[in-house]
Design a protein that fits this description.
- This protein is mostly beta strands.
- The chain folds into two domains: 8-55, RNA polymerase II/Efflux pump adaptor protein, barrel-sandwich hybrid domain (OB fold (Dihydrolipoamide Acetyltransferase, E2P), Beta Barrel); 67-184, Beta Barrel (OB fold (Dihydrolipoamide Acetyltransferase, E2P)).
- The protein contains no helices and 16 strands.
- It has strands spanning 8-9, 14-17, 22-23, 27-30, 33-36, 40-45, 50-55, 67-75, 79-87, 99-103, 124-132, 137-140, 147-150, 160-163, 166-169, 175-176.
- A hairpin with a 4-residue loop joins β6 (40-45) and β7.
């Protein structure tokens, strides 16, 4: 663990292990490790052996029509699960711990046979909220400006770079395809 109190941490980032610290505000425990729940500044109280995160931005309830960013956590043939990170807004509001679902019919306006060809675990996506249910948020990437904004190599996890209609890994030279967000081609 990088013990830098005050450094910026991201949702889901591993902060420490339970043997070293107790989970404080905006920190959760899973499998003996402590993770950040929000985008914020790390606070380490060495005296009390407590670690917490102070949010950088306020959270707000999402609504239908909002554009959100999230990290793909699971990909099946016909559905994608996304851990939501933030709502796209002028002040880049952090998202309360939540997940979204993208059904195959909401990925694109064309026929898609298998989602595993267009999304991979770890990819960062830009999506629009089309429905809110008690335990999930329905998302779409069917608009040209929605889709993967940052992709990682399936083999070595290095960031992928655009190369024609495909993405290429400059580390292991593998070539992959994604459902890319058109406006974000320069971000990758």
């Amino acid at each position: 663990m990088k013990e830098n109190s005050g450094r910026v941490v991201y949702p889901g980032e591993e902060l420490a292990v339970e043997e070293e610290f107790e989970a404080g505000e905006n920190v959760y425990s899973k499998d003996g490790k402590l993770f950040s729940m929000v985008l914020g500044k790390l606070n380490i109280d060495k005296e009390k052996r407590r670690i917490s995160v102070r949010p950088l931005k306020t959270t707000r309830v999402a609504k239908v029509g909002d554009i959100v960013f999230g990290r793909v956590s699971l990909v099946y043939d016909n559905v994608i699960f996304v851990n939501l990170i933030s709502v796209e807004s002028k002040d880049n509001v952090a998202f309360p711990l939540a997940f979204g679902i993208i059904n195959i019919r909401n990925v694109a306006r064309t026929y898609i046979k298998n989602l595993k060809e267009l999304f991979k675990v770890g990819d960062i996506v830009r999506a629009r909220i089309i429905g809110i249910k008690p335990y999930s948020i329905e998302l779409t990437t069917a608009e040209p400006s929605l889709g993967v904004v940052k992709a990682f190599c399936s083999n070595c996890r290095a960031p992928l770079k655009p190369f024609g209609q495909f993405l290429k890994c400059l580390v292991c030279n593998s070539t992959e395809k994604r459902k890319l967000a058109k406006l974000c081609a320069e971000v990758r």
